[in-house]
From TrEMBL:
Family annotation (PANTHER family): HIGH-AFFINITY BRANCHED-CHAIN AMINO ACID TRANSPORT ATP-BINDING PROTEIN, HIGH-AFFINITY BRANCHED-CHAIN AMINO ACID TRANSPORT ATP-BINDING PROTEIN LIVF
GO biological process, one term: L-amino acid transport
Descriptive protein name: Urea ABC transporter ATP-binding subunit UrtE
Upper lineage: Bacteria, Pseudomonadati, Thermodesulfobacteriota, Syntrophobacteria, Syntrophobacterales
Designated gene of the protein: urtE
Native species: Desulfoglaeba alkanexedens ALDC
Keyword Cell cycle included in the entry's annotation: no
Length: 230
């Protein structure tokens, strides 16, 4: 589905990602873990096209998209939920959802199915985005991307700063989406247990490189923890 090969990315002169290789098989959840500042967000921005890599290639469904613009990647079905969620604070929940659809040139009516995935959003449709809790904003940000029917979802630390009950709801939603098998997910997380319950494959980054990776069912938790602690 997505193949990241030898990617090196920088901000100006400062190289952040070094020769990163990641494979996301169709229908799988791939977790990228690592401490603060190792380059996880930079990786997602590079996949989304917000940062141009200095070298390497990104192939999506067999096509080289390394030089494609972010908007074109979104139209090809790559959906990005950034760390800051980027909810419009003065728009209602419903308006935030509709904006997500319109941005991709789709019909501006919120599909009912999204409230089955996020029941909590149904009751707060008329609340302003800025008045929601962090967890509700995170759910809204994921919902806003999901209604555009992406094929690959990029999630940047969806559990960050969120109360446990909503983390649990988000986990169930991602699990449900995974079981449907239509979507592949690249999940950046620091909450290891959450990531490992959802992921098929995991990669641990250290200082911009992949230090450790494998099939979640085959890796030892201690090995992962040791690499996370470095
Ligand atoms: N716009 C930028 N300009 C310059 N340096 C940046 C920029 N954004 C991030 N960095 C630096 O790049 C490095 C990697 O940052 P990045 O946000 O990708 O890490 P991260 O693993 O996602 O961390 P976190 O978990 O804190 O989000 C950090 O040292 C950070 O200070």
């Amino acid at each position: 589905m997505l193949s990241i090969k030898n990617i090196t990315s920088a901000y100006g002169e400062t190289v952040i990602l070094r020769d990163v290789d990641i494979e996301i098989p169709r229908g799988s959840v791939v977790a990228v873990m690592g401490r603060n500042g190792v380059g996880k967000t930079t990786l997602l921005k590079t996949v989304m096209g917000l940062i141009r890599p200095l070298k390497g290639a990104i192939t999506y469904n067999g096509r080289d998209i390394t030089h494609l613009r972010p908007e074109a990647r979104a139209l090809e079905g790559i959906g990005y939920v950034p760390q800051g969620r980027e909810i419009f604070p003065f728009l209602t929940v419903e308006e935030n959802l509709v904006v997500g659809l319109e941005a991709r040139g789709k019909k501006a009516a919120v599909p009912e199915g999204i409230f089955a995935l996020f029941p909590g959003l149904r009751d707060i449709q008329n609340r302003k985005g800025g008045d929601l809790s962090g967890g509700q904003q995170q759910q809204l940000a994921i919902a806003r991307i999901l209604i555009t029917e992406p094929k690959l979802l990029l999630l940047d630390e969806p559990t960050e700063g969120i109360q446990p009950s909503i983390v649990f709801e988000i986990e169930n939603t991602i699990q449900f989406i995974k079981e449907q098998g239509k979507l592949s997910i690249l999940l950046v997380e620091q909450y290891m247990e959450f990531a490992l319950r959802l992921a098929d494959f995991c990669y641990v980054m250290e200082k911009g490189s992949i230090a450790f990776h494998g099939n979640v069912g085959e890796l030892s938790r201690d090995d992962i923890k040791n690499h996370m602690a470095i």
